[in-house]
Amino acid sequence: MSRIVGIVNQKGGVGKTTTAVNLATALAAQKQKVLLLDLDPQGNASSGLGVYAGESDKTIYHVLSRRAKMKDVIEPTDIDNLYLTPANIQLAGAEVELVGTMSREAHLKRALKDIRNDFDFVILDCPPSIGLLTVNALTAADGILIPLQCEYYALEGLAHLLETVDLVQGSLNPDLKIDGLALTLFDSRNKICHQVMSEVKKHFPKLIYKSVIPRNVRLSEAPSHGRPAVIYDPSSKGAKAYVALAKEVVKQHGGA
Amino acid sequence: MSRIVGIVNQKGGVGKTTTAVNLATALAAQKQKVLLLDLDPQGNASSGLGVYAGESDKTIYHVLSRRAKMKDVIEPTDIDNLYLTPANIQLAGAEVELVGTMSREAHLKRALKDIRNDFDFVILDCPPSIGLLTVNALTAADGILIPLQCEYYALEGLAHLLETVDLVQGSLNPDLKIDGLALTLFDSRNKICHQVMSEVKKHFPKLIYKSVIPRNVRLSEAPSHGRPAVIYDPSSKGAKAYVALAKEVVKQHGGA
Ligand SMILES: Nc1ncnc2c1ncn2[C@@H]1O[C@H](COP(=O)(O)OP(=O)(O)OP(=O)(O)O)[C@@H](O)[C@H]1O
Ligand SMILES: Nc1ncnc2c1ncn2[C@@H]1O[C@H](COP(=O)(O)OP(=O)(O)OP(=O)(O)O)[C@@H](O)[C@H]1O
Ligand SMILES: [Mg+2]
Ligand SMILES: [Mg+2]
């Protein structure tokens, strides 16, 4: 039961990295062997685990530009069952460098083929755009989990994201599924949040995960300590919501 | 006193669009003639003013791909002194299409040459990445205003943004200035906000605008009504902060 899940949304700041880091960690705590793969040149998923890949370190950039194999860039973390493939700013070069290559959308898919069965889950943290890095993720993934901030601009972007998924399903990756939508940064005092939630429930009733991630300050504090919130403060509302989401994800894919 | 100001930060969701839309509107209210130019394929600055450019409408995409002139895509809005150049998802194609063209970073600079003196300010809303669209903005701009969310990941990205600005100043646009940093989404109850604010004050004391933009729900409600918050709810804390920021910006550039 190896599943590659892309955490995708081209809208910025909706909780993609926070979801990728905390979901991956919570899945690892449920005895799933997990690889968190940072596909964003910002390298936030890496620093969210306290890892800063230097200029001379091998990262996913080297794999995409065929200068390294996937097994060279998979590192264990100090968290049981959780492994990381880091990224740093060098990855920003890949968008331009890959444009002219053959089958430029499938570099990641090919790279993951050899190692995917070593893990129960491979979680891909994507950048806030639908450029070549995100398209590589959509081509390599079995499913995508869409973090959706309960705000107007974020809702606006959803329709466009779903069109892109459609295009990818029609050509690059016919088996790509939408695993679900996770409502993030939910502030129950803000009426926009309730409006967005009811809109999404109306249009995509079967796609929404039950676990709603609340706006919770411990989630934004954790990265400055290089720890996922589910470890930094497991009793916080944010951490508990990600643990619950991980349980839903495991159940959804036939796990224990 | 025509000034082209890029609203730039590759970190997602830090308030670029909210700053571009409300600053542009507040400048227009202070008798400045302003063009708000949407350079993000998400088209949020356009929809923030209630404008939805359709497939058949001319947008900044057509100007960058040399199928239209700048004067064809400048529309008046129902707000005095405020004009808009809209964007829509077609603009996403420009990143790939421009890569192989001559002097690909300077398309926007060339396009703005003819019209820049018709305005006191041209405000560029940029996407959350440092791809070709943002590099075009950095090449065309006289100055950049960096919205900085008071969060850890956003602070991490600042160093990389400043390196990019350095590179652009060294080659594509030697006259590019950093007009300032505007602290956004500031929540005085959140200790991270205070930590980030003191970090930034320590490292960039001369660059920070005095007006700090608070987290204010009216700012996130306004886009769903297609109005800038400074018009939707001028008495709100968020709107007042943008009016104060606009006063600082006018003063900074020798205006009344
Ligand atoms: N539920 C939450 N409660 C409080 N803060 C949160 C929550 N989720 C994310 N954050 C904070 O909000 C900011 C944006 O989240 P994050 O960086 O995970 O989003 P992103 O979609 O990965 O952004 P980007 O588009 O730049 O990749 C971060 O500073 C993060 O710490
Ligand atoms: N000061 C504020 N108070 C409350 N909400 C805000 C504030 N500034 C922005 N927002 C909301 O936060 C979200 C992110 O802001 P915005 O879209 O302006 O950021 P951005 O940097 O333009 O994002 P992107 O990186 O996707 O372009 C939006 O939903 C917006 O309505
Ligand atoms: Mg991220
Ligand atoms: Mg924006």
Q: Largest sheet of chain A, order of strands side by side?
A: 3-4-2-5-1-6-7
Structural class of chain A: alpha/beta
Number of helices of chain A: 11
Radius of gyration of chain A: 17 Å
Q: For the terminal residues of chain A, how far apart are their CA atoms?
A: 11 Å
Largest interface: A-B, 36 and 36 residues
How would a textbook summarize the main sheet of chain A? Answer: 7 strands, mixed
User: Roughly what is the average pLDDT of chain A, rounded to an integer?
Assistant: 96
Order of helices and strands of chain A: EHEHHEEHHEHEHEHHHH
Bound molecules: adenosine-5'-triphosphate, magnesium ion
Helix content of chain A: 40-55%
Morphology call of chain A:
globular
Please provide the count of β strands of chain A.
Answer: 7
Low-confidence stretches of chain A: none
Multimerization state? homodimer
Strand percentage of chain A lies at 5-15%
Structural account:
Two copies of one chain form a homodimer. The longest helix of chain A is centred in the middle third of the chain and has 19 residues, at 152-170. Chain A has 256 residues and is α/β, with parallel strands linked by helices. Chain A contains eleven helices and seven strands. The mean pLDDT of chain A is 96. Chain A binds chain B through residues 10-14, 17, 42, 44, 47-48, 89, 92, 95-96, 99, 127-131, 149, 151-153, 156-157, 160, 190-192, 195, 217, 220-221, 223-224, and chain B through 10-14, 17, 42, 44, 47-48, 89, 92, 95-96, 99, 127-131, 149, 151-153, 156-157, 160, 190-192, 195, 217, 220-221, 223-224. The structure holds adenosine-5'-triphosphate (ATP) (2 copies) and magnesium ion (2 copies). One magnesium ion is lined by residues 16-17, 40, 44 of chain B.
